[in-house]
Give the backbone structure.
Amino acid sequence: MSRQPTNAAPDATTTAAPQTAPEKRVLHDCRNAFAETLIELAEADPTLVAVCNDSVGSSKLEGFQQRWPERLVNVGIAEQNLVGVGAGLANGGLLPFVCAAASFLTGRALEQIKTDVAYSDANVKLCGISSGMAYGELGATHHSIEDFAWLRAIANLAVIAPADPEETRQAVRAAAAHRGPVFLRLSRMGVPDVVPEGYTFEIGRAVRLREGSDVTLIANGTLVHRALDAAELLATEGIEARVINLPTVRPLDGAEILAAARDTGAIVTAEEHQVQGGLGSAVAEVVVSHQPVPMKILGVPGVFAPTGSAAYLLDRFGMSARGIAEAATEVIRRKRAAS
Amino acid sequence: MNSSRPSAQHLAGIARRIRRRDLDMIYEAGAGHLGSELSCTDLLVALYFGELQVDPDEPSAPTRDRFVLSKGHAAGVLYVTLAEAGFIDPAELATFMQPGSRLNGHPDRKLVPGVETNTGPLGHGLPVAVGMAKAAKLRGESWRTWVLTGDGELQEGSNWEAAMAAAHFGLDNLALVIDHNRFQQGAAVADTNDLAPLADKWRAFGWHLHELDGHDFDAIFAGFDVARSTRGRPTCLIAHTNKGEGISFTRDRVAWHHRVPTAEEYAQARAELTEVPS
Ligand SMILES: Cc1ncc(C[n+]2csc(CCOP(=O)(O)OP(=O)(O)O)c2C)c(N)n1
Ligand SMILES: [Mg+2]
């Protein structure tokens, strides 16, 4: 699924000289960090079990299966059952990591997630694999670009989208340590390392990755490195952009968002999700209530994506580094016009 | 239908051509579900060239037969079959899964003529087919609804909800064809969440049950005739197939669910599909 797009937008970052040139970066499939961490945790905690839906390969659970065949519960192609069984396993004293393609896990089993997991407060860790548009050319059925909206509206559920392998490792550990329902939104799309040395992930905390006072770029998951590249581009134009990584969409770090609104007066959000109801909406809910500033929400603009790879589609929907930088310029213009 | 059906030999030629083109397409695109597509190729050929009352010049004719490919991951072979049947231009197959192509990895009815409903997530086809068959009954029309599912797909509970409804509604204008290739994505069905005894399940759910060899055109058509002549209840045809049928090294190998052949494998597969079997 990783063919290069043939007519992707020209790479916007060629004018900038970021830390490592984008074309030289090593890209990681965060499923590997996920699977390795799960094995580490399972070694220490005999109650940890993996639950899947004929998704051993796509969830990278082969190693786990080899090691502990009896601790891998494969219910077959049956997502409602998958999540219900997960809730039952938790009730029975186990720590289930329920792993399935994000689109089917969330779309198919939404009521089980709401009632059996969140409402019942079952200690289940839902792992949505290959989220966003990672499945690319497999099309809209396999894209999971509504999941923030669906899950963010469910009480008692933490919703987390890590940005790189290190943050994935820490998020998986934090999910295991947290007592209560968690949804981890994982991708298979290649991403570079983005979090700094010594980084500590905490559920519900946003992290400033770059300082700036002209505008704030807020992103999570696969969009974080694109936001950082956009900030590099903006810097060459004399614009200082703050970049915030906001892995936890629920519960939200309102203080960090308000600080951004107050300090920079203009915000752009970018997410591999529909513009409706996702990260941008979550940020806007806080901003509009407490500190209204010009905002632009970048995402999939309310359409089912056409055929194409995730990278191609993100570029096409205005989420290349250049696209994000242009959105930043626009909100800065609006900020200045208003003052 | 029956009287005008082409010979098994003629259909075998079409099926071989479709397998070849499908292999080429997957190889060129670098993606696709080869094993899943090869296992249902003969069933699609029997449907499109010997059963379905559909017209490429009028793909939305209100009284056309409906066909639903519930195992939407076999979209590639559906596209090749639709091209062979005149619904789309064969030249377009070269765009399979390319940016902006109509030929997405799973079929989209808004873009591709002949596709009735969008599939991809498993367990959607049968409920929609029940609705189609019920519509024909309510309208007093004689067109029929056919739906093709995988076997692993039957692990989805939605199928069994639909199975009960179809029997309850007495939908004898509905036929389900199960591509019973014994494998799913990661392993054998029997090793994942076994369906056995599959035939007994359908009988218990009130369906007329008939089993056939899904790679034998005469047997397939005999099954279609059983479905047509059954009154008062829907028919389930369990088609015994082989995943990856037609290429020696993909047959019954679960790894070929969605593997793409290397250049060497492609050459060998191409050679096998070019030879005319005796
Ligand atoms: C709801 C849902 N869950 C999981 C998948 C991923 N998936 C695609 S094909 C497949 C295996 C299907 O097996 P089977 O129904 O036996 O079809 P075959 O390819 O063998 O014909 C799986 C699990 C999916 N498409 N939809
Ligand atoms: Mg199968």
Notes: Residues 35 and 60 of chain A are 6 Å apart (CA to CA). The radius of gyration of chain A is 19 Å. Chain A has a mean pLDDT of 94. The pocket of magnesium ion (ligand 2) is lined by residues B 150-152, 181, 183-184 (CB under 6 Å).
